[in-house]
Amino acid sequence: MQRDLRLDNVGRRYGLRGPWVLRGVHLTVPPGTLIRIEGHNGTGKSTLLRLLARIDAPSEGRISGAPRTAYVPERFPTALPFTALGYLTHLGAVHGLSRPAATRAALEWLDRFGAAAYARTPMAQLSKGSSQKVAVAQALLAEPELLVLDEAWTGLDSAARAELERAVAERTADGTAVVFVDHDPRRLAGAPDATYTVHDGALNVRTGQGTSPSTGPHATVVVQGPSGASLPAEATRTATATDEPTPGTHRLTVPASHSDVVLRALLAAHPPWHVVSVSQETTAPSDPSAPSDLSAPSAPSEAESRR
Questions:
Q1: Model confidence pLDDT, tens digit, residues 167-214
Q2: What is this structure's pTM?
Q3: Of 22, 180, 230, 241, which has the fewest CB atoms closer than 10 Å, so is most exposed?
Q4: Which residue stretches belong to region Disordered (predicted)?
Q5: Residue 259's closest CA among 302, 294, 295, 214?
Q6: Which class is 5-207 in CATH?
């Protein structure tokens, strides 16, 4: 069974007498959590992520727990003797997939990120954006228990950035822990379970771990379910708030970036839930206990009709 990843009094410096980049770091990363790391350039964010990914060892302190980990670095090496498909197939096989299964997974992820046309292009000939898509794909096809993303959105086009946000939502809903750094403060706004800031070598929590996010764009999903049915676990894990304003009618507040995951879980249930409405708020979510008129179901939402 997967255990939490824990950093206890961890410090890191380069060289026996080099300055401390990080010191006294305590951090617990439970399964299924989404954690954002912030801080100015040069404060040690990338060093922290390399420690979490077990690429670097701490100079002091202890790291415990061994989730299966995938890592997307800020700069991905492109001078590799593979095509994009060959590289991903090789990595899939390293992670235990058969070669046919690894090839299928590689093609699926390349297609999701709009890079299928470059599947047989040598890695050294890929553009920065295309090589970054391969970097993201190699991490996701492993179905990791811990996904570490260091500026992974940098260089991606808008469609691929949105696809990566969807993939993060899918993985966290499925129990994967995700730790990420990104320069855009709007990235996955409202979704993280905790936000930490690296400052002067120390790690400081900004939002209490395990608390519901209260800022950023959210979506409100209103559904009606089969008599006596409980909401799918994937939907309740992803929602920041749920309530039942009328018997059989449920209202879920979810980060806008995760709404697709919730809708898919509801519509794929057996029997499926009926989606009454989906609306998006650009401000903090309102009190879910506030009254609203749910007396008459509306027409199926656009999201439902697409499925």
A1: 999 899 889 999 999 998 889 888 888 899 998 889 988 744 443 444
A2: 0.72
A3: 230
A4: 225-251, 278-307
A5: 302
A6: alpha beta
